[in-house]
Amino acid sequence: MSYAVRNTIILLITLLVFGGAAFAYLKFVQQSEIEKLSEDLVSLNKDYQEKVQIRDQYQPLLDRYNKARDIILGYDKQLYRNNNPDDIYDYLSEINDDNLELYYDYNFQDSTIQDQYGIINSTIRGAGIYSDFVTFINKLENSALLNKVNNVSVTPAPNLGSDEFVSFSMLLSSYYQKINFEVNDSTSRFKIDPSVSIFNPFYPLILESLPPNEDNLVNIERSRILGLTSTRIFIVDQTGTTQVLKPGDKVYLGYLDKIDIKNNQATFNLDKGGIQEIFTLEVDK
């Protein structure tokens, strides 16, 4: 074999080895890398599209959130932040401490859960002045925290020393959050509906006895007029003290209604335990 032929054969074999190695590298190494990169590209494209959708949805969702937040902050009602009955008892005590005269027992019954909130059910039984009891419920239902009053029972309790006292019982449903969310802490804590009447329907229309004159007002039935003008009268009361009264001024059981300068007399409106009476005093002559 000539030298030239041998070198040609060696060159061909070398080229075949390089070619096979290159083919194998392309086939078994780069092809797998290409496939992996292709899969990564698909995954990245998918992730990119999802992030594009999130980006596109962000502003509408932010606008929706801000609108919902403004609505919530505009509410005059809030939910209790948890389902602790002690918080409800403390809230009731705050209402009762506001110059009210009520004595009651608070008993937790159970707690029920709804989709977006929970309810604590409890019973309240006690006694107190009727007007204070009505004010208590008025504040409880109209103030910031959401409470509902049901099954109210009220009965007279004159054995407590006054016809103004009543015994009462009621069921209380207090609503609390299942998840924390922003509320308007600046909302006035206690509110009242001024249109609610506190008239006691159990109070007798005519009293068995007249109330005592605790403020030592002028008892006109035991007094006499010394003189009068068109705007005031000069009267000696039951204690012998000279006093000056103007129309509208209070006296025991009533008030001075008008002055009749022509007839030298004064007229008083009296409420004698439910019996309305007009009483007239003339100037002593």
Key words describing this protein structure:
single chain, 285 residues, alpha+beta, Alpha-Beta Plaits, 3 domains, 4-stranded antiparallel sheet, 34% helix, 30% strand, rod-shaped
Level-1 CATH class name of the largest domain: Alpha Beta
**What is the strand tally?**
11
User: H/E element string?
Assistant: HHEEHEEEEEEEEE
**What characterizes the major β-sheet?**
4 strands, antiparallel
Fraction of residues in helix:
25-40%
Span of the ends, CA to CA: 173 Å
The whole-angstrom Rg is 45 Å
Strand line-up across the major sheet: 1-2-4-3
Supply the number of helical segments: 3
Low-confidence stretches: none
Q: What fraction of residues sit in β-strands?
A: 25-35%
What global shape is seen?
rod-shaped
Structural class comes to alpha+beta
| Count of discrete structural domains | 3
Overall average pLDDT: 83
What is the fourth-level CATH superfamily of the largest domain? Ribosomal protein S6/Translation elongation factor EF1B
Architecture of the largest domain, CATH level 2?
A: 2-Layer Sandwich
CATH topology of the largest domain: Alpha-Beta Plaits
Structure description:
- With 285 residues, this protein is α+β, with helices and mostly antiparallel strands.
- It has 3 domains: 1-74; 85-177, Ribosomal protein S6/Translation elongation factor EF1B (Alpha-Beta Plaits), CATH 3.30.70; 220-282, no CATH class.
- 34% of the residues lie in helices and 30% in strands.
- It has 3 helices and 11 strands; from the N terminus they run H-H-E-E-H-E-E-E-E-E-E-E-E-E.
- The strands form 3 sheets. It has a 4-stranded antiparallel beta sheet with strand order 1-2-4-3. Strands 8-9-10-11 form a 4-stranded antiparallel beta sheet, with no helix packed on it. The chain has a 3-stranded antiparallel beta sheet with strand order 5-6-7, with no helix packed on it.
- A hairpin with a 5-residue loop joins strand 6 and strand 7.
- The chain is rod-shaped, with a radius of gyration of 45 Å.
- The protein starts with a helix and ends with a strand.
- The mean pLDDT is 83.
